[in-house]
Amino acid sequence: MEYEKARDRLADRLERRYDLEARVAEAIRTVPRHLFVPEEHRERAYADRPLPIGHDQTVSAPHMVAVMADHLDLTAGEAVLEIGTGCGYHAAVTAELVGAEHVYSVEYVRDLAEDARTTLSDAGYGDVSVRHGDGHDGWPEHAPYDAAYLTCATGQLPDAVLEQTRTGGRVLAPVGDLAQELVLARVREDGIKRERLGGVRFVPMQGE
After folding, report:
1. What is the pTM of this model?
2. Staple partner for 150: which of 11, 83, 132, 146, CB 3.0–4.6 Å?
């Protein structure tokens, strides 16, 4: 399979369908998703669908990764916290937008964290920081963050993640149990302003 051509077609299709910023489409075009999925699923790496990565987890469909990046409006040099490393694909796309050294990712499953760290390094994103831990706690050592996002559904936005996001920053997450909505929270001096962005379906956050 010609991965590069398939990735180009995927990026072009997503850019048109979701009116993505050019930088976001270019990140999708650049990151080799096939390296982040199990070998038995690589032929489907550039299909716009989630794929299993083991431990009852999935890697999000490329359109969802792109849409989330687009909503966060990430710029180079911003510090970003990711909750739910999974296989590392979403972190790699974020790294294309802000720089790998500015991405901090927390993964609940130790084996996934270790595998993602290796894959990110092999794919050229070794400066992404990955920690095994409970995402509800965020990663206080590197706070404050300009932006944060969750790749798993939560009943409510974790207090620690909100507290570790600077005033003026934003947090994006799927919120809800059976019925989930993508919620963009903006951290302001007078509190948290939430914007609902539509229904989604993610695996639940572990530890809830």
Report:
1. 0.96
2. 83
